[in-house]
Amino acid sequence: MAAQVASRNVVKKVLAQETPEGAGALVRRSIGTMGLRNLTPFLLLDHFHISKGAGFPDHPHRGQATVTYMLEGSSKHEDSAGHAGTIKAGGVQWMSAGRGIIHAEMPIQDDDGPEPRGLQLWVDLPKKFKMSEPSYQELDPDQIPTAYPEGPNGPVMIKVISGKSYGVESPVRPLGGCWYFHVKFQKKGNAIFQPIPAGWTSFIYTLNGAIRIGTDPTPQPQYHTLILSAKESEEGVAITATEDTTDFILASTAL
């Protein structure tokens, strides 16, 4: 990274707390808790684990987008508009609820496979889209493009769920715009610099391992949501692994 490029830094971090949700499901929640209520336009972030017999039966959404990204296992989805489908491990569903919809998300339990785990992010829609028709953008794992900053056989992989990174752009077009990446580092010391438009609200959620941000040497451990600064002079964020086998989510969007 060139010395003159300024990185964003961590201005707040919140440990995701385990809490029951839905029908017997367990989530680690950070955004949307008392510790992190005001991160406009991000409304909620759940890192969920769905054991046998649990799930998220019929519930409403309105005026927001819900982004469901499966890390392990699969989940079925159906709604009041007649849409139904399956989100596989590594796949994503980007639902814009618009003027309102009722849907259910239930796991597919496989005795030979892992219990379903994933992330769900809620993003407030801009005012002009709040009364739009509900819509979906769904990608299977092999449809999500991947960036390899150090080459296809290198130690860094970035799944570009939405937005663009290292010359790779996702086909997902969120209403209002939102960038969403799943970054994996194989080794301690692996690093990236991800450009972020000036003024955008941004956060990182650490899934495994630990990272450091910008010039701060402090390791940021697993299950923490890291809120990033947004100074006009900061062109993006520098992220370095401080442990082997590290991965995290980076999300950013305009106010």
Q: Brief overview, please?
A:
0% of the residues lie in helices and 51% in strands. By secondary structure, the protein is mostly beta strands.
Identify low-pLDDT runs. Answer: none
**CATH topology title of the largest domain:** Jelly Rolls
Q: Helix- and strand-based class?
A: mainly beta
What kind of sheet is the major sheet?
7 strands, antiparallel
Tally the helices: 0
User: How confident is the prediction overall: mean pLDDT?
Assistant: 91
| Whole-number tally of structural domains | 2
Radius of gyration: 18 Å
Number of DSSP-assigned strands:
23
Fourth CATH level, the homologous superfamily of the largest domain: Jelly Rolls
CATH top-level class of the largest domain: Mainly Beta
Structure description:
Its cofactor is Fe cation. Belongs to the pirin family. It comes from Hericium alpestre. GO terms for molecular function: metal ion binding. The protein is mainly β. The protein has no helices and 23 strands. The strands form five sheets. Strands 1-21-19-23-17-14-13 form a seven-stranded antiparallel beta sheet, with no helix packed on it. Strands 2-3-4-11-6-9-12 form a seven-stranded antiparallel beta sheet, with no helix packed on it. A four-stranded antiparallel beta sheet has the order 5-10-7-8, with no helix packed on it. A hairpin with a 2-residue loop joins β15 and β16. The two termini are 28 Å apart. The model has no long low-confidence stretch (mean pLDDT 91).
